[in-house]
Inverse folding.
């Protein structure tokens, strides 16, 4: 990609979401997303192989549709949004289906693997060229210092360690 002309794509926020799912009491899942985030991709080819992805989210914008839970997630028990206001991801490699990159939450950076469905490129009714991606993966929240835990009376875990990442990104060709 060093010799190729690189194309930058900017996030279409109206058609994108950075979300997650985590088991609650091991019987159901809680879903949430970040209201404030940004992303970009730079590529040298139409198939986006070897593209460079960057995205970041304001952790204070977390929304699980429960204000008390959201405030707890913003606290030092989880994200500590006051001291670490953003989480970020930067890809190191992308082969068209698998993306490897560095995820930083709080003050911890770990290399993670994400699975990517590249849904193609289309021109919208306004003449903008757009590209769409569905991205998924799983992380252990405790690896990133999100260590709060509690046990139910029956001995079950209130919040699972594994968090599923559910990310839908649409980009506009710059």
């Amino acid at each position: 990609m060093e010799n190729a002309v690189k194309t930058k794509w900017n996030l279409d926020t109206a058609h994108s979401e950075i979300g997650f799912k985590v088991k609650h009491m091991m019987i159901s899942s809680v879903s949430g997303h970040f209201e404030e985030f940004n992303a970009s991709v730079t590529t040298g080819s139409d198939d986006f192989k070897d593209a460079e992805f960057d995205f970041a989210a304001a952790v204070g914008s977390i929304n699980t549709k429960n204000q008390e839970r959201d405030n707890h997630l913003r606290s030092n028990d989880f994200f500590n949004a006051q001291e670490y206001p953003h989480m970020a991801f930067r890809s190191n490699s992308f082969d068209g289906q698998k993306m490897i990159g560095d995820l930083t939450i709080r003050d911890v950076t770990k290399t993670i693997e994400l699975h990517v469905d590249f849904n193609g490129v289309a021109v919208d009714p306004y003449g903008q060229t757009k590209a769409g991606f569905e991205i998924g993966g799983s992380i252990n929240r405790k690896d990133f210092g999100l260590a709060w835990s509690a046990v139910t009376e029956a001995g079950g875990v209130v919040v699972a360690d594994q968090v599923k990442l559910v990310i839908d990104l649409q980009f506009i060709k710059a």
Observations:
- The chain is about 5% helix and 55% strand.
- The longest strand covers residues 108-123.
- The chain has a mean pLDDT of 93.
- The longest helix spans residues 67-74.
